[in-house]
Specification:
The protein is α+β, with helices and mostly antiparallel strands and 295 residues long. The protein contains eight helices and eleven strands. β1 and β2 form a beta hairpin.
Length: 295
Amino acid sequence: MSDQPTEAARRVARAEDEYAYLGCEVRRTEVCTVVTTEICPDMWDSNHVREINLPVGADCTEFVLEMEKQFRRLGREHCKFELDFRTSLQELAVVLRDRDYTPLPVVLQLFAGDEARPAKGRSARRAGEEVRPVEVDSDGRAKEDWRQIKRDEYGGAQVRGRFVERAIALCEHKMSVARIRHGQGWDGGLLVHVAYIGATPAGCVELFWHGGVAKIEGLYVKEKMRGRGIGSHLTLEMVNLARQKGCDIVYLAANAFDSPRYMYLNLGFKDLTERAGWLTTWGSLKQVEDSVRWD
C-alpha cells in the first residue's frame, strides 16, 4: 500500500469500527474511542481503545497510564489498544512495547474477485458430501448447535469463570441489536450461520455488513471435521451472500502469522492493510496473555 491509504482501506476501517461498536458501550473523546461491554468484560475484542488520534507533542506514556486506570476502574483485568493506519503518533507503539504489551498483528484481506468460486484443487470432502449453511436466527436447532460449537471453540481458552457463556451471550446480544437497528433503517446487519454436513453440525461463521462493506468473522470448523474444505466453502458462501446484500467490498481479518491467512489468499483474497492490537493483562487473565505470547 502507498503512504496514502486507499478508499477501500478507509471504508474497511470504518466497518471495523462499526463492528466493534455493535452491542457495546461507546465513549468518544477528542483523542480516542473506548469500547466496553458488561456482558463479557473479559473479551478484549469488545473492551478496548481504538480510533486513537493523539495530537503532536502528546505524552503517549501518560495516555496509556490513564487508559489503564480507566480499565481498572471499570473492573477489567486487561487493557488493549487497537492501532491501524489512522493512528496519528507511531511513538505510541514504542511506548506500548516498552511497557511490555503483547502485539497481536492482524492482516485485513480484501476479496479481489468478481465472483466467489472454489479454489483449484479437489475438495477433501467425500463424494456426495455437501455443506449446508443454516442461519441460526431462523432455526432453533441451528442456534443450539451454534452455541455448542462456540463452547467447543472457546473451550481451549485458558480463562477462568464463565467466559464461554458470557462470550456466547455477547454474540447473541450483538445479533439482537443488529436485528433491531436494521428494522429501524440502519444500513447494516449481522448474520450467523451453522454449517451442516448431512445432519452433523460442522462449523460456523458470521457475516457483518455496513455501508456496502461486509466482514466475514468468527469462522470455526470443529477439529474432527477439518481438512474437508468446509472452511473454504463457508468463506465463499459468505462472499456470495455479501454480494447479494449489495456489498461491493468483502473482507476478513486474519492473524498475520497463522496459516488461514494463506488459505484466504488461495480463495481470492489479497492483503489490504494491517492493524495491531496491543494487550496487557493482570489478575486471573495474565495466563491468557502468556499463552498468546508464546503460542
